[in-house]
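thread: overnight batch results

M.L. [08:02]
morning all. the overnight job finished for the chain we discussed friday. pasting input first so we're all looking at the same thing
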Amino acid sequence: MSDSSSELTSYAVDEQGIALLRLERPDARNAMSTQMLAELLERLAVARDDDAVRVLVLSSGDHMGFSAGADVRETLDDEGRVRRMQLFAEVYDEVVAFPKPTIAVCHGDVVGGGAEVAVGCDMRVAGANLRMRFPGAALGVPVGPARLVTLCGLAAAKYLLLSSRTIGADEALRIGLVNRVAPAAGAEQAALELAAGIATHPPEAVARLKQMLHQWDDVVGRSKVEGVGQVEWARTGPGLPQPD
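M.L. [08:03]
and the structure it wrote out:
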């Protein structure tokens, strides 16, 4: 197994070609700062270009939470706020357009930007402790429809986005937001087992099928358009809450 780590993320590839990319900031509920987003983009590029990687699993080192979303405690000037939103848009686009199968481990808090990354993946394994929320309406951020509608349909997307309410694992499974539920501490292992099964298939066939699905659905194009809008909102709107 090859692996590398930094202050905010870790990355490893096993002998089956399963890449495990973890968020490693448990003291901040894996809130995504500018630095973490930049690291995620670097990790995604490495996994995308590595022919040995057959499946990418996105998780966190703490089963109590995948990510609480944007780091609202990060002090940023106007330019920094726009740059961070641009990085969010790029991360979403890279996850959606990733050419190999992707699986998100949705344990604990999966909120805001964390939820957007999760729904940008091809599959999701929930921990029984899942608390998922899309707070865009409450915060005024125009983000969410591009990836969520294609995943669980218009009616469920409206319900989740317009209410900004938190849902648990059972409800997420019922509306098709996650594919399976496992005990919180075992969600990552369940995702790795799912990845192992996929990794046995011919990678060219799997990549072609994913490409066909995306071409017919155009989620990649919709994600890009939405990203432009959320960056413009950060540039001209009130922006996300700032630390006191």
